[in-house]
Amino acid sequence: MERLLITVCGRAGSKGFKNKNLKTFCGHPLVYYSLSAAELFAKNHPELHIDFALNTDSPELAELVKARYPEVVFLPRGEELGGDKVPKMAVYQDSLRRMEEKTGAAYDYLMDLDITSPLRTAADIENAFAKKQSRPDLDLVFSVCEARRNPWFNMVKTVGDHVEQVNKSEFTGRQQAPEVFDVNASIYVFKRDFLASNTDGMLWRGKIGVSVMMDTGIIDIDSEHDYRLMEAIAAHLYENYPDFDAVRRNIRG
Q1: What are the phi and psi torsion angles at 60 (to 5°)?
Q2: 10 vs 8: CA distance, rounded Å
Q3: Are 22 and 30 in contact (CB under 8 A)?
Q4: 167 belongs to a structural domain
Q5: What DSSP line would sit under the chain, residue for residue?
Q6: Is residue 160 in a domain?
Q7: pLDDT tops 70 at residue 218
Q8: Looking at the 3D structure of the chain, how many domains does it have?
Q9: How distant is the alpha carbon of residue 60 from its chain centre?
Q10: Inter-axis angle of helices 242-250 and 30-43, to 10 degrees?
Q11: Residue 212: CB partners within 8 Å, gap ≥ 6?
């Protein structure tokens, strides 16, 4: 039986948006949306051994999770991983190491679900995991959405006193340019050995695949404006897209 560790990671406080990981979103704590979507995914995969872990230095966040999802293992985050300059990779590695010590067995994969991306469906998680599971050659699969701008066509950079194309090209239409995506930071699925052996915190060292999500479903919440905009988008999605509403309705009462 393959073993999967699903993590949810969040720091206490936030410079950009104070205590964003403790916010209530459309009537529920933000973190519950990630846990609800993970639960729906797990119900569809009885063939997997799945453990859940919360890595945080926030006692308040730990209490929120414990109140409704007591099966989630709380991993208190040490001070050395608490700064805003600590690469997320180090937190994933810390979670993997400590959970393997607790369980006495190695995992095959680690999947991380970002707290500030509440508008993901169980199918989004399914697609990302299936992509990694079907491609042993990939070290990492993460979620993306289709980009609305393209660096070979309609993006510019500052060069001295003027701007130029980010990448020089003669394309006259965006469809002619190479396909690009926005990394939306919602879902990461790691091959265990790639994650465990990483030494510099950089995602880009391995062979990466992507899983495409609905572009209007994800805006990373990092400000009050993002938060209000996401709630407005959520109202539309919950009314018109059953897969999104299923995650909200599955949140434990």
Answers
A1: -65, -40
A2: 7
A3: yes
A4: no
A5: --EEEEEEEE-SS-SSSTTGGG-EETTEEHHHHHHHHHHHHHHT-TTSEEEEEEEES-HHHHHHHHHH-TTSEEEEPPGGG-STTS-HHHHHHHHHHHHHHHHSS--SEEEEE-TT-----HHHHHHHHHHHHH-TT-SEEEEEEE-SS-TTTS-EEEETTEEEESS----SSGGGSPP-EEEEEEEEEEEHHHHHH--S--GGGS-EEEEEE-GGG-----SHHHHHHHHHHHHHHHHH-HHHHHHHHHS--
A6: no
A7: no
A8: 1
A9: 21
A10: 100
A11: 127, 143, 144, 145, 146, 181
Mean pLDDT comparison of 8-22, 213-227, 238-252, highest-scoring range: 238-252
User: What gap in Å lies between CA 250 and CA 200, rounded to an integer?
Assistant: 38
In a domain, 235, yes or no: yes
Q: Which are the contacts of 180, defined by CB distance < 8 A and separation ≥ 6?
A: 147, 150, 151, 152
Residue 198 belongs to a domain: yes
Asked if 122 and 37 touch (Cβ cutoff 8 Å), the reply is yes
Question: Where does the pLDDT of residue 16 fall: very low under 50, low under 70, confident under 90, or very high at 90 and above?
Answer: low
Q: What is the mean pLDDT of residues 113-125?
A: 95
Q: What's the CA angle centered on 98, arms 96 and 101, to 5 degrees?
A: 105
| Strands 181-191, 208-213: pairing kind | unpaired
Average pLDDT, the chain: 93
Please tell me the least confidently modeled range out of 78-92, 109-123, 178-192. 78-92
Contact in structure between 252 and 68 (CB atoms under 8 Å): yes
The boundaries of the domain holding residue 63 are 3-145+181-250
The CATH number of residue 238's host domain is 3.90.550.10
CA distance 238 to 51: 28
